[in-house]
Design brief:
Elements: H1 3-23, H2 37-41, H3 53-64, H4 86-98, H5 109-125, E1 133-137, H6 140-156, E2 171-176, H7 181-189, E3 197-200, H8 211-223, E4 227-234, H9 246-255, E5 259-263, E6 288-291, E7 304-308, H10 311-318, H11 349-384, E8 388-390, E9 401-403
Parallel strand pairs: 2-3, 2-4, 4-5, 5-6
Antiparallel strand pairs: 1-7, 6-7, 8-9
Helix pairs in contact: 4-11, 5-11, 6-7, 6-10
């Protein structure tokens, strides 16, 4: 496809997206297709000859749209708030159109440096100190895996040669019983083993981690000859938006020389609101943290921020140095390939830049405060309705309710 052909097709597609967003309220929120319906509606083999834009848009209407849960629908309340601001979509179109090759600073200097700047904008908006350095990953699951890989190496010394088999002690990981399932997955993928993952009990009624129980579990593991490696604290759990007491957790972890990672995937955006930063008290004492702009403030999916206090921790674990990736500037620049799992990376920073550029932080904060006010109002309605109750503290925008009919 040549640029002029693309221009016409792209105009049609942009019009289609705009029409979809304008009419999304007319669709049922949840898809009614049965398993296999979408696959059966598609051709069994790829086209041998080119097909037109009209056919493509027709397939979007007839096959794709009916097979979606419409998370941009105003009546969608599943998973996390409807997002994918069209401002952020513009950034993604630019990123895809540029087709930058994010292998190294040299392959795309702007990709690297825009990401550095945008991550620092978000840091400032969250009130975090300048010590934090950020990168963008696809999600908090990846960020947590990276954090536990770093914690593993710091706890066991250099395992590059002998791997986990060379560790003199079993390494243990701790998280709240209400932590996201990605923590368990990350602990397994990082090689700790299910037998070395400790699910710490939670306190009632808030469902935050019981720090006394954490201290007891860590002490018991030390007495049994194990080495506490990491604590994953949750700032805003998936089920109830509970906040683990970060300052107390960091104090206990420090006594055992354990790494602390803070999973603030959904609720981390609340740091942008000064009146809610007290929920994150102690976060400056953690080793790393992550939060997802795609879960509340409007960026499209796969825009997750991972911040570390010391990027050297990442580089010591992730760095590779093949001759075909070296350049004369290696000692002067950030090489994001050494900060995470992938070598090649997309220009994800443009999504966030476009969001901030076209909407501005003030409007984003206003939208968040609107959401919080709506949650409080809804909780009041539930509390006043016969047979209904709010069953967990309403910390932010999540309201957990129970219906008990007569």
């Amino acid at each position: 496809m040549q640029p002029e052909q693309w221009r016409g097709a792209a105009h049609q597609l942009v019009d289609w997206v705009a029409d979809y967003r304008q009419s999304v309220e007319s669709f049922p929120v949840r898809s009614s297709v049965a398993p296999g319906d979408v696959a059966r509606a598609m051709p069994a083999c790829a086209p041998e000859l080119p097909e037109g834009m009209d056919e493509f848009l027709s397939a979007l209407d007839g096959v794709v749209v009916p097979g979606l849960t419409h998370v941009q629908h105003p009546s969608n309340f599943a998973w996390f708030p409807s997002n994918a601001s069209l401002a952020s979509v513009l950034g993604d179109i630019a990123a895809a159109g540029l087709g930058a090759l994010g292998l190294s600073w040299q392959s795309a200097p702007a990709l690297t440096e825009v990401e550095q700047v945008v991550c620092d904008w978000a840091r400032q908006l969250c009130g975090l100190s300048p010590v934090w350095k950020g990168t963008i990953s696809d999600g908090a699951s990846t960020s947590t895996l990276v954090a536990l890989l770093v914690a593993r190496e710091k706890a066991g010394g250099s395992l590059r040669d002998g791997g986990l088999q060379a560790a003199s002690q079993p390494l243990t990981v701790y998280c709240s019983a209400d932590a996201h399932s990605s923590v368990t997955k990350a602990a397994l993928l990082a090689g700790y083993g299910a037998a070395n993952l400790r699910l710490v009990p939670v306190r009632r009624p808030g469902r935050e981690m019981d720090v006394e129980a954490l201290d007891a579990l860590m002490a018991a593991d030390v007495a049994a000859g194990r080495r506490p490696a990491a604590v994953v604290a949750t700032a805003g759990t998936t089920a109830t938006t509970a906040f683990d007491p970060l300052r107390e957790i960091c104090r206990v972890a420090a006594a055992h020389r354990a790494y602390v990672h803070v999973d603030a995937a959904m609720a981390g955006a609340a740091m942008m609101l000064e009146e809610h930063r007290h929920l994150f008290d102690g976060i400056e004492e953690a080793s790393s943290l992550c939060w997802n702009p795609h879960k509340w403030i409007g960026s499209i999916l796969e825009t997750s921020l991972l911040y570390v206090r010391d990027p050297a921790d990442l580089v010591s674990v992730m760095a590779t140095d093949p001759s075909y990736l070296r350049s004369a500037h290696d000692n002067d620049v950030v090489q994001y390939r050494d900060w995470g799992l992938p070598l090649g990376r997309r220009f994800r920073a443009l999504r966030l830049w476009a969001l901030f550029h076209f909407e501005g932080a003030e409007a984003i904060r206003a939208r968040m405060r609107r959401d919080l006010a709506n949650a409080r109002t809804f909780a009041e309605w539930v509390g006043a309705a016969p047979g209904w109750s709010v069953v967990a503290p309403v910390t932010l925008q999540t309201v957990c309710v129970r219906h008990t009919p007569a």
